[in-house]
Amino acid sequence: MIIAINIFIFIVTAYLQSSLLGRFDILGLVPNMILILMVSIALYRRTYEAYAFAFAFGLIIDSLSGGPFGIHTAIFMLTVFAASLFVKEDHSNVTAPLSITVMSVVSLIFYVTFWLTLSFQAKSFALSGIIFTLEQVAITVGFFVITFPLLRKLFEWEEKKADVRMGR
Question: How do the domains of the chain map onto residue ranges?
Fold first, then answer.
């Protein structure tokens, strides 16, 4: 049941990302809600579950997007790995500053990697690309700050339901 809820949340997030948020951009910037969801999963789900979601969601997004194939899968897997270095299995040490730091680093890596890949393909390294990358990081982290408390409550609720079901 919990996996079904997470898959449903991913489908809704992918739909919002691809259709709705593109129409309501902020100065040409659109937050990466799927990256926000993946960081939240990496921070609040068990590591093996987070890796499974990262791999599956990354492949789905890579196959649907027009970007370089494999970038989402690699970044999502890296996200889970980085989060597992800082987060205990019971998630007791996940604080707002840690969450924002992880989101900032992951989104910076994601957008810089994406910018470098596109720049190498175009054989053009423009300063405007760096500025746009930093703006995208800022808008994604800003939306993370807004949405993370809701996602945190959802994942804590899921954890309680799983504990009740497992008899813990």
Answer: 2-166
2-166 domain in CATH 1.10.1760? yes
b/e string for 116-132 if b means 16 or more Cβ within 10 A? eeeeeeeeeeeeebeee
Q: How many CB atoms within 10 Å of residue 101? A: 13
At CB < 8 A and 24+ separation, what contacts does 95-102 make? Answer: 96/148, 99/39, 99/43, 99/144, 99/148, 100/141, 100/144, 100/145, 102/39, 102/42, 102/43
The pTM (predicted TM-score) of the whole model is 0.82
Residues 83-103 have pLDDT tens digits of 888 777 666 677 888 888 888
Q: Which helix (H) or strand (E) holds 15?
A: helix 2-15
Sequence-ordered list of residues with C-beta below 8 angstroms from that of 163, at least 6 positions apart, any chain: none
* Cα 103 from Cα 86, distance rounded (Å): 13
Token pair 């997004």 in the structure block, residue: 61
